[in-house]
């Protein structure tokens, strides 16, 4: 039995150690190798304990089962006072827990340590999206986070409304986004690419859609992007190129509105507010002659808000990048809103 336990546990340990684990999540940031090591180490310790307990339990249940000729009320031999056994089953788990604690504290302090901070980013959660600010930029950057490769980065995360979660699986970093509290994460991106950022706290009916991306790029590309952000007023990159609205289809826009907009906007009058204002009479509501950003309520101006988003005293509207709305989609949505205003 002991040989069986050793063989099974050794095999499980071996495959845990060599596996590309956690499966499918390539490590893309600096805490990843050490957290993955801790994960595998825990898995190996757990597999030995699991096998010792379950295999012996099964073995004892078979070998020491009640004989067929014994009465149903028969009980086994009662054993008391085994100081040697009691000593070891106290000492061994204690040693294991202390070893795990030492590894965990070491790795945790490595993650928390500043390594000559180069970049600071603020990540703010809201229903239902993420906003990123770089303290050296006057304007907040909506939607997608950019990080330079191999640069130690501090990310301050917080929330504007309710509890959210900030998780980049490939970098093995995760923190709660709590209104009124700033949590700090440290990461050094080690692999260029685009990775997911996911909200991990149930935060309302848009929770499942609350995700965005982090773009890790080389220093030159990051500097170029950073320069572009600094050079534009307005949020989300602030494109002001007009969008062709002529081919917009109201019925396609209606379907899209149900998927992308209806969590936050009703199709009632402006005052019929959910998270944002009602959009059913956005072009004809004389009580609200201006859009949220102060522009006139023309189809083109509404399209620009859909494209660039809005951030200000009256709230936040994520940009089309965050909402993954193409220019064609914008044209369809505007056509739908125009058709509503005519009714
Ligand atoms: Cu934010 Cu879930």
From TrEMBL:
<keyword id="KW-0349">Heme</keyword>
<comment type="similarity">
    <text>Belongs to the cytochrome c oxidase subunit 2 family.</text>
</comment>
<keyword id="KW-0812">Transmembrane</keyword>
<dbReference type="InterPro" id="IPR036257">
    <property type="entry name" value="Cyt_c_oxidase_su2_TM_sf"/>
</dbReference>
<keyword id="KW-0472">Membrane</keyword>
<feature type="transmembrane region" description="Helical">
    <location>
        <begin position="1"/>
        <end position="17"/>
    </location>
</feature>
<dbReference type="Pfam" id="PF13442">
    <property type="entry name" value="Cytochrome_CBB3"/>
</dbReference>
<keyword id="KW-0813">Transport</keyword>
<dbReference type="InterPro" id="IPR014222">
    <property type="entry name" value="Cyt_c_oxidase_su2"/>
</dbReference>
<dbReference type="GO" id="GO:0005886">
    <property type="term" value="C:plasma membrane"/>
</dbReference>
<keyword id="KW-0479">Metal-binding</keyword>
<feature type="transmembrane region" description="Helical">
    <location>
        <begin position="37"/>
        <end position="64"/>
    </location>
</feature>
<dbReference type="InterPro" id="IPR009056">
    <property type="entry name" value="Cyt_c-like_dom"/>
</dbReference>
<protein>
    <recommendedName>
        <fullName>Cytochrome c oxidase subunit 2</fullName>
        <ecNumber>7.1.1.9</ecNumber>
    </recommendedName>
</protein>
<comment type="function">
    <text>Subunits I and II form the functional core of the enzyme complex. Electrons originating in cytochrome c are transferred via heme a and Cu(A) to the binuclear center formed by heme a3 and Cu(B).</text>
</comment>
<dbReference type="GO" id="GO:0020037">
    <property type="term" value="F:heme binding"/>
</dbReference>
<keyword id="KW-0186">Copper</keyword>
<dbReference type="Pfam" id="PF02790">
    <property type="entry name" value="COX2_TM"/>
</dbReference>
<keyword id="KW-0408">Iron</keyword>
<dbReference type="GO" id="GO:0016491">
    <property type="term" value="F:oxidoreductase activity"/>
</dbReference>
<dbReference type="InterPro" id="IPR001505">
    <property type="entry name" value="Copper_CuA"/>
</dbReference>
<feature type="domain" description="Cytochrome oxidase subunit II transmembrane region profile">
    <location>
        <begin position="17"/>
        <end position="115"/>
    </location>
</feature>
<dbReference type="InterPro" id="IPR036909">
    <property type="entry name" value="Cyt_c-like_dom_sf"/>
</dbReference>
<dbReference type="GO" id="GO:0042773">
    <property type="term" value="P:ATP synthesis coupled electron transport"/>
</dbReference>
<dbReference type="GO" id="GO:0004129">
    <property type="term" value="F:cytochrome-c oxidase activity"/>
</dbReference>
<feature type="domain" description="Cytochrome oxidase subunit II copper A binding">
    <location>
        <begin position="116"/>
        <end position="228"/>
    </location>
</feature>
<dbReference type="GO" id="GO:0005507">
    <property type="term" value="F:copper ion binding"/>
</dbReference>
<dbReference type="InterPro" id="IPR045187">
    <property type="entry name" value="CcO_II"/>
</dbReference>
<dbReference type="InterPro" id="IPR002429">
    <property type="entry name" value="CcO_II-like_C"/>
</dbReference>
<keyword id="KW-0679">Respiratory chain</keyword>
<dbReference type="InterPro" id="IPR011759">
    <property type="entry name" value="Cyt_c_oxidase_su2_TM_dom"/>
</dbReference>
<keyword id="KW-1133">Transmembrane helix</keyword>
<dbReference type="Pfam" id="PF00116">
    <property type="entry name" value="COX2"/>
</dbReference>
<dbReference type="InterPro" id="IPR008972">
    <property type="entry name" value="Cupredoxin"/>
</dbReference>
<keyword id="KW-1278">Translocase</keyword>
<feature type="transmembrane region" description="Helical">
    <location>
        <begin position="85"/>
        <end position="105"/>
    </location>
</feature>
<keyword id="KW-0249">Electron transport</keyword>
<feature type="domain" description="Cytochrome c">
    <location>
        <begin position="248"/>
        <end position="341"/>
    </location>
</feature>
């Amino acid at each position: 039995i002991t040989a069986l336990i050793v063989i099974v546990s050794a095999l499980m340990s071996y495959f845990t150690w060599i596996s590309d684990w956690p499966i499918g999540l390539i490590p893309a940031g600096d805490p990843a190798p050490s957290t993955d090591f801790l994960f595998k180490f825990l898995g190996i310790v757990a597999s030995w304990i699991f096998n010792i307990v379950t295999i012996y339990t099964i073995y004892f249940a078979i070998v020491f089962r009640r004989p067929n000729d014994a009465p149903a009320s028969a009980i086994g031999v009662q054993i008391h006072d085994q100081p040697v056994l009691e000593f070891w089953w106290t000492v061994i788990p204690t040693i294991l827990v202390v070893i795990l604690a030492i590894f965990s504290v070491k790795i945790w302090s490595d993650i928390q340590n500043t390594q000559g901070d180069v970049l600071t980013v603020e990540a703010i959660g809201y229903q239902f999206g993420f906003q990123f600010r770089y303290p050296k930029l006057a304007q907040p950057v909506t939607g997608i986070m950019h990080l330079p490769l191999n640069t130690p980065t501090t990310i301050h995360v917080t929330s504007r409304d309710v509890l959210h979660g900030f998780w980049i699986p490939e970098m093995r970093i995760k923190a709660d986004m709590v209104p009124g509290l700033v949590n700090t994460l440290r990461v050094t991106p080690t692999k260029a690419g685009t990775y997911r950022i996911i909200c991990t706290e149930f935060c309302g009916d848009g929770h499942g859609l609350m995700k965005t991306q982090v773009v890790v790029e080389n220093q030159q590309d990051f500097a170029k992007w950073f320069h572009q952000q600094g050079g534009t007023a307005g949020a989300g990159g602030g494109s002001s190129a007009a969008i062709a609205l002529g081919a917009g289809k109201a019925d396609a826009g209606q379907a899209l509105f149900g998927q992308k907009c209806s969590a936050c906007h009703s199709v009632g009058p402006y005052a019929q507010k959910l998270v944002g204002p009602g959009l059913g009479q956005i072009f004809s509501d004389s009580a609200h002659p201006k859009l949220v950003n102060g522009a006139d309520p023309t189809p083109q101006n509404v399209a620009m808000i859909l494209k660039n988003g809005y951030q200000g005293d009256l709230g936040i509207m994520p940009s089309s990048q965050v909402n993954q709305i193409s220019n064609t989609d914008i044209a369809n949505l505007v056509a739908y809103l125009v058709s509503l205003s005519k009714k």
